[in-house]
Every structure is written in structure tokens, then in C-alpha cells.
Write a structure and sequence with these properties.
Helix 8 packs across helix 13. The chain has 16 helices and 14 strands. With 425 residues, the chain is α/β, with parallel strands linked by helices. It has four domains: 156 residues, Rossmann fold (3-Layer(aba) Sandwich); 33 residues, no CATH class; 116 residues, Arc Repressor Mutant, subunit A (Orthogonal Bundle), CATH 1.10.10; 105 residues, Trna Endonuclease, Chain: A, domain 1 (3-Layer(aba) Sandwich), CATH 3.40.1350.
Length: 425
């Protein structure tokens, strides 16, 4: 095993630096904590490692950098005991590096049972800076917090944001240029339905759908069924299809339970709660609770569900004509979730799509077309009600085209097209 690690390390050192598109994450390069990068499969964690390695190469001897991907078939079935040969093999190649700081990148490390025991030990005993990535449920934030016992900083990684999507396609962002705005709006029309998985970019529709389907199979089989030994795979598949097809809608477990029972499914409410929890843990979907002053009240109300990427909605939808509003809403949620751990919806007399608490609290409604008087009044009145309740002076209404600022009852509401909102946010 030591010889294999030495060969992989040598191959990495002899390889050329990878060309990558910069992502909008600020990951510390020299933290005394173990850096954990966590997210859904294929969202770009590996390329983010390459970007960090490229940055380190500017100031660090490349021989002090180690990268291993544990989805390499040559590393299948290795054990915790085998890991002990990793750093020993490296120091056998470069004995003088024992006195220098080494940067260790371990990609998809969750494939090794009890990997965290080895990571804890070398973190505490060697002069190493450690970066680990993981996709499956075996590398959850809550599990890392326990297994690494305060030694880690965790970063959630998402598929490409719209700003990153433009960077990938080399679209210049100049909001003072009509030409630039034309290219931005053209790119946004594609991003809205195709989402942010980089592997699908510049592919035709058939290939995109095959890629999305493969991703779902990875999530279902490798991240859910294998780990939890799920027997009712038919129910799990149906829940995934239901969740990803109904983004932005309220979900009541009680109602869903009665619906499934009526169709003849054998299940319990606990099973539904568990399966929804599994989907969230795998970063396939998210649930947004209502904002209330007590956890009990939050739990009694239905939650809104959102998908990790608009591409899954496109895959599972037969017609997009009636769902533009849901695609818009999902993009707004994802952008908020990139920057905030807590996202809620608000409901008084009327509902507001999103509320983000904090010192710079935000209320946001999303509506593609607000030209009709009834729609306009509903969206505005909901925001005004929410602002009065939350004691806020301003709110946002994300739209397809309207770009202006209005004042209602002494409150400021910013109307802004989604593409511009995504770049400003």
C-alpha cells in the first residue's frame, strides 16, 4: 500500500496544474483547522481543491502539496490501517519534508470507514494542513462536528451560481453596457432551466438529461439506499420525483401520508419524515420552515421545498411553461442559502416567499409577471404586511423585467429582475 500511495503522489507531482474556473468561495489556505468541503455530488468540490492547490503553488513548493481522490479505482476497499501508509510513504519519498508544512487534500474521503480517526491523529501530530471533501451522507456537517471534535471548519459547496456561470462562459459583466446586458440576459435564459452543474454546460438537451439522471441515480443508490439499507425504493424514488417536481410548494407530511395510504403504499409517517431527512442530508433538496417565535409552532406548519439545482426540475417536468415562477423562486432560494444558513417563509394574512433574519434582515417575494393588478397588489401587500410585522423599512420583489423602486405606506420596495438580483446579491 505504501508503494501505491507513493506512485499516486509522484503522479500528482508530475502532472500539470489543472485549469479551473474560479469559484466565489473564500476558503482559508493556512487555517489550523481541518477544512471540510461538503455538498451534493458533482457540484465542483474537486475543482475547488484544484483551485486551492493552484493558489498554494504560487507560494509553496509543489512537492509540499498532496492530492488524492479516493474514488480512484486503485484505492477502492482500502482500510483505516492502510491510511497509515499515506504520510509515511510521502516522508519516505521526501524525508526533509518532515520539518516543513505539508498541505494534504483528500477528495471523497468518506469512502474509507473511520477515516476521521486517521485525520484526527495526523492533524494533532504532524505539521500538515488538511482539506477533505465529501458528497455522501457519511460526510455530513453534523457528523464532522462530532467525529472531528471542534477541529474542523466546514464549507457547503453548491453548483455554480449565476455569477460563476457567466465566468465559466466568459460573459463580461458590465451593467453599464447594453451589449453586455444582452449577453447576460441570453445566458440567464439558459441558466434558468439548465442549472449550475458544470458538466451539463455546453451539452445538447439529450446529454444534459442523461447527466442529470445519472446524478440522481448516484444520490439515490450510493448516498441513500446503500447507507440506510432502504427497502422501499419505490417510495423513495416517488418522493424524489415529487420533491424535485414541486419546488416552492408547501408540503404537509400528514396530507402526503394520507395520499400515499390512499394509493395503497405501506408506510408510516415516521418513514416519510426519515426519507425527507435523508434527501436533505444528501443535499438533493431543502425544506424552508415558516418563521415563528417558537420551534413548536414552526414544526406544526408545512414547509416549502426546494431543489439543489434547477436542472432536476427541468429533467422531471414535461412542460416548463407553467413553472417559470417556480424556477425563479428556486434560484432565489439557492442564492439565499449560499449566503445564509437560516431561510424562512413568512405568513400573516398573506405569504412572503422568503425571510432571512439577522442584523440585515430581508423580506423577498418572487413573481415573474406582475403586470396584472391583482398579482401586483398581492405581492406588494404581502411585503408591506411583512415589513410592518418585522419592523423593516425595505423589502425586495424579484421579477422578470421590472426594475424600479417604489414607496408604499412609508416603506421602500425594490423591484429588480432576477438576473440582476443574482449578480447584485
Amino acid at each position: 500500500m505504501k508503494a501505491l500511495f507513493q506512485r499516486l503522489i509522484t503522479d500528482f507531482h508530475e502532472s500539470k496544474p489543472k485549469t479551473v474556473v474560479p469559484r466565489d468561495y473564500k476558503i482559508p489556505l493556512d487555517s489550523q483547522k481541518i477544512i471540510s468541503l461538503i455538498g451534493v455530488r458533482r457540484c465542483g468540490k474537486t475543482h475547488l481543491c484544484y483551485a486551492l492547490i493552484n493558489e498554494l503553488r504560487k507560494t509553496v513548493d509543489p512537492l509540499n502539496l498532496i492530492y488524492l481522490n479516493f474514488e480512484d479505482d486503485r484505492l477502492f476497499d482500502i482500510t483505516l490501517a492502510d491510511l497509515d501508509h499515506l504520510m509515511e510513504g510521502y516522508y519516505a519519498l521526501y524525508p526533509d519534508k518532515r520539518d516543513e508544512r505539508v498541505y494534504l487534500f483528500l477528495d471523497e474521503v468518506q469512502n474509507i470507514p473511520q477515516w476521521e480517526r486517521y485525520i484526527r491523529r495526523i492533524h494533532d501530530t504532524l505539521n500538515v494542513r488538511i482539506f477533505v471533501t465529501g458528497s455522501s451522507l457519511r460526510l455530513l456537517s453534523k457528523e464532522i462536528a462530532t467525529s472531528l471534535r471542534g477541529r474542523t471548519l466546514s464549507y457547503e459547496i453548491f453548483p455554480f451560481s449565476f455569477a460563476e456561470y457567466l465566468r465559466f462562459h466568459q460573459v463580461e459583466v458590465n451593467l453599464n453596457s447594453s451589449k453586455s446586458i444582452s449577453y447576460i440576459e441570453h445566458a440567464f435564459a439558459k441558466y434558468l432551466t439548465q442549472g449550475g452543474f458544470a458538466e451539463t454546460f455546453e451539452q445538447d438537451e439529450d446529454i444534459q438529461q442523461r447527466i442529470w439522471r445519472d446524478y440522481l441515480d448516484l444520490i439515490i443508490y450510493r448516498d441513500l439506499i446503500e447507507r440506510y439499507d432502504i427497502k422501499n425504493t419505490h417510495l423513495l424514488r416517488h418522493l424524489i420525483k415529487y420533491s424535485l417536481s414541486n419546488i416552492g410548494t408547501l408540503v404537509s407530511i400528514n396530507k402526503l401520508f394520507n395520499e400515499y395510504k390512499g394509493r395503497g403504499h405501506k408506510l408510516s409517517k415516521d418513514t416519510l419524515y426519515q426519507y425527507f431527512g435523508y434527501l436533505e442530508d444528501a443535499y438533493a433538496m431543502f425544506s424552508v420552515p415558516i418563521f415563528r417565535n417558537s420551534v413548536q409552532e414552526e414544526q406544526r406548519n408545512p414547509k416549502k421545498i426546494y431543489a439543489i439545482d434547477n436542472g432536476f426540475k427541468t429533467l422531471l417536468n414535461t412542460s416548463l411553461s407553467d413553472d417559470l415562477s417556480k424556477l425563479y423562486e428556486n434560484l432565489v432560494f439557492l442564492q439565499l442559502r449560499r449566503n445564509h444558513r437560516e431561510v424562512y417563509y413568512y405568513k400573516g394574512v398573506q405569504e412572503v416567499d422568503f425571510y432571512v433574519p439577522g442584523k440585515q434582515a430581508r423580506l423577498i417575494n418572487v413573481s415573474v409577471n406582475i403586470e396584472g393588478a391583482k398579482t401586483f397588489d398581492r405581492e406588494i401587500n404581502g411585503l408591506v404586511e411583512g415589513m410592518k410585522y418585522m419592523k423593516l423599512d425595505s423589502a425586495e420583489l424579484v421579477t422578470q423585467h421590472r426594475d424600479e423602486q417604489i414607496e408604499v405606506d412609508g416603506k421602500c420596495i425594490n423591484l429588480i429582475p432576477l438576473w440582476r438580483w443574482l449578480l447584485a446579491d
